[in-house]
Design brief:
By secondary structure, the chain is α/β, with parallel strands linked by helices. Helix content is 27%, strand content 22%. The chain has a 7-stranded mixed sheet, with helices on both faces. It is built from 5 helices and 7 strands. The longest helix has 14 residues. The model has no long low-confidence stretch (mean pLDDT 86). The protein starts with a helix and ends in a 17-residue tail after the last strand. It has a single domain, classed as Vaccinia Virus protein VP39 (Rossmann fold, 3-Layer(aba) Sandwich), CATH 3.40.50.
Length: 184
């Protein structure tokens, strides 16, 4: 997580309606920071809490299934008393369809990233942003490829250090799901 980027984007979406979502929670570091940036918004935390789902791995996805496991109980304890709620399972099975202003995607794999981007864009309020970690990481090539395959026509991809973000323009089509999946 890059705090300066999150700070900038939180200010950008301050007046955008909707909740906040993070998919790929691990130990809750960025989730904890998001609770400070969005103290009055519900933070939905999606994770298996058993590590990366190996059945979704492609040959370009280097991290092994089960990597980044962390106890749901430990994350809930860490975020006790905040606006965060854990939604365990393989995404998007447990996804809710509520308006969102900010989505943080940190799931490493191609298909997982693509699922988060399509769902997140559909739920994103105009003016909201999606941040995708792992863009440019040599061990997470699938995440970067998913962003390139998904990127909605006319959307501007903003690059940061090992991550990227996309803003849904305030006049954007809230029904668009992005460019659509084109598996490698």
């Amino acid at each position: 997580m890059e705090a300066a980027l999150f700070d900038k984007l939180a200010k950008m979406v301050a007046d955008v309606p909707g909740d906040v979502a993070e998919v790929g929670v691990h130990k809750g570091d960025s989730a904890e920071y998001l609770t400070t940036l969005f103290p009055t918004r519900q933070l939905h935390l999606y994770d298996t809490f058993t590590g990366l789902p190996g059945q979704l791995k492609l040959s370009i996805d280097h991290n092994r299934g089960g990597a980044f496991a962390c106890s749901r109980h430990l994350v809930e304890e860490r975020l006790s008393g905040t606006n965060a709620i854990c939604r365990p399972g393989i995404f998007p099975e447990q996804a809710i369809n509520e308006p969102l202003c900010f989505v943080h995607c940190d799931v490493d794999y191609y298909y997982s990233t693509l699922a988060v981007l399509c769902w997140g864009w559909q739920c994103l309020s105009p003016g909201g942003v999606i941040v995708c970690d792992d863009y440019g990481f040599s061990t997470c090539l699938g995440a970067g490829l998913a962003v390139k395959h998904w990127l909605p026509e006319g959307a501007e991809l903003h690059l940061a250090v090992k991550r990227c973000w996309v803003r849904k323009e305030p006049t954007g089509d809230s029904n668009s799901t992005g460019g659509g999946p084109n598996p490698p």
